[in-house]
């Protein structure tokens, strides 16, 4: 076994765990979940059945990732963040009978490569978080988030742009659609409400 699971964690026998991944105390990995290599699953985190998680992903303590979520490589999910899966949540049907797994259709949250979800943020499915985007702590995401967007609030709205480093970008002098990372110096261009890396 080339991954580590703490004694109080629960990992279903049908789950696939990549090399170098660590699953900490009280975490639960459900059936048919797939976790890549080098991941960290924090204390009390939950990964639902069939969830797909890439390499080098961090799920901080008590993060809840419900099926059928898909997380790309290098994603960060902050403490107590929630990825939902039900558009119309109800415990019972109109006749008062308890709903079971087959009584509703699960919808996914997709988090693309390098994106980060702040502590206690909520992603209301179905929604896509773009590459290298940053969702602020406590935000409630109800609409797709573009690549490199910085979103905050309830509901979440774009308040700026971030680069791969995660630092808020600044406008370049004399370039109304040009942005720069103050830490790395990487350059970006804004086009029709989207940000692209400059070649």
- Could you give a short account of the major beta sheet? 9 strands, mixed
Structural class by SSE content: mainly beta
CATH top level assignment of the largest domain: Mainly Beta
- Helix and strand run: EEEEEEEEEEEEEEEEEEEEEEEEEE
Number of domains: 2
Number of continuous helical runs: 0
Label the overall shape: globular
Mean pLDDT: 96
Percent range for β-strand residues: 25-35%
| Rg (CA only) | 18 Å
| Order of strands across the main sheet | 1-4-7-10-13-16-19-21-22
The H-level CATH homologous superfamily of the largest domain, spelled out, is Hexapeptide repeat proteins
Poorly predicted regions are none
The CATH topology label of the largest domain is UDP N-Acetylglucosamine Acyltransferase, domain 1
What is the straight-line distance between the termini?
42 Å
* Count of individual beta strands: 26
Q: Mind telling me which CATH architecture of the largest domain this is?
A: 3 Solenoid
Instruction: Estimate percent helicity.
Output: under 10%
Q: How does this model look, in words?
A:
- By secondary structure, the chain is mostly beta strands.
- The chain has 2 domains: 4-162, Hexapeptide repeat proteins (UDP N-Acetylglucosamine Acyltransferase, domain 1, 3 Solenoid); 164-199, no CATH class.
- It contains no helices and 26 strands.
- The strands form 4 sheets. It has a 9-stranded mixed beta sheet with strand order 1-4-7-10-13-16-19-21-22, with no helix packed on it. It has a 7-stranded parallel beta sheet with strand order 2-5-8-11-14-17-20, with no helix packed on it. The chain has a 6-stranded parallel beta sheet with strand order 3-6-9-12-15-18, with no helix packed on it.
- β25 (187-191) and β26 (194-197) form a beta hairpin.
- The model has no long low-confidence stretch (mean pLDDT 96).
């Amino acid at each position: 076994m080339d991954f580590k699971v703490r004694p109080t964690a629960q990992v279903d026998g049908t789950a696939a765990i990549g090399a170098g991944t660590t699953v900490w105390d009280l975490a639960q990995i459900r059936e048919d979940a797939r976790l890549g290599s080098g991941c960290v699953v924090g204390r009390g985190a939950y990964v639902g059945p069939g969830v797909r998680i890439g390499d080098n992903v961090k799920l901080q303590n008590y993060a809840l990732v419900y099926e059928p979520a898909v997380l790309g490589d290098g994603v960060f999910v902050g403490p107590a963040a929630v990825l939902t899966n039900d558009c119309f949540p109800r415990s019972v049907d109109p006749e008062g009978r308890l709903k079971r797994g087959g009584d509703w259709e699960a919808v996914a949250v997709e988090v693309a490569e390098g994106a980060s979800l702040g502590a206690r943020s909520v992603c209301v499915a179905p929604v896509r978080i773009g590459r290298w985007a940053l969702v602020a702590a406590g935000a409630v995401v109800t609409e797709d988030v573009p690549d490199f967007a910085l979103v905050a609030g309830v509901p979440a709205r774009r308040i700026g742009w971030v680069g791969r480093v995660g630092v808020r970008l600044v406008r370049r002098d004399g370039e109304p659609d040009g942005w720069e990372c103050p830490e790395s110096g990487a350059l970006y261009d804004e086009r029709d409400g989207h940000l692209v890396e400059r070649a």
